[in-house]
Amino acid sequence: MAKWLFKSEPDVFSWDDLVSRGKDGEEWDGVRNYQARNNMREMKEGELGFFYHSRSGLEIVGIVEICNEAHPDSTTEDERWECVDVRAVKPLPRAITMKEIKAEPRLKDMVLANNSRLSVQPVSEAEWDVILEISGA
Fold it and tell me: Which InterPro entries does its entry note (predicted)?
C-alpha cells in the first residue's frame, strides 16, 4: 500500500481539527495544484499518510487514513478538482520537525525535504519507517 503526506497550516486546519471530526474524517479540499490532485487520485481507501503542520510548526504530528477515495471537491464547481477524505488515526509519540528531516541522511530524497511546497505528496515505505523510528513509534 502506498503512503502519503498531507500538509496543512495549523491556523487554518490543524491535527486537532481533524481529530475532532472523528471516524467520518474530513474532506481534504481546496487543493489547486495538479500534482497534488493527481496524487489524491492515486490514493486507495485504507492507505495511510502523515499529517504535517506547515508554515508554523513545520512538523509531522500524526498519522491519517484515507477513508474515501477521490471525488469532486465540494469547495468548487470546477470539475478538474478532486479530493479524498481522511481521518485521524493517531498522533506520533513525538513530532518530527523539518529540521530533523533535512538532517537525517536516510530522508535526503524525501519529497518533503526537496519540494516543501507540494501539499499532498507520496512517502516511500523506507521514509515512512524512518519517520516512525525517529518519532519513537
Answer: 5hmC_binding, EVE_domain, PUA-like_sf, THYN1-like_EVE
Rounded to two decimals, the pTM is 0.96
For 3-135, the fitting CATH number among 3.40.30.10, 3.40.630.70, 3.40.50.300, 3.10.590.10 is 3.10.590.10
Percent of the chain whose predicted confidence (pLDDT) is above 90: 95
What is the average per-residue pLDDT within 110-137? Answer: 95
CA–CA–CA angle 27, 129, 100 (5° rounding): 85
Beta-carbon count within 10 A of 74 CB: 11
60 beta partners: 52, 96
What are the cell numbers at 115? Answer: 519540494
| Model confidence at 34: pLDDT above 90 | yes
Q: What is the pLDDT of residue 19?
A: 98
User: Minimal CA–CA distance to 27: which of 61, 74, 63?
Assistant: 74
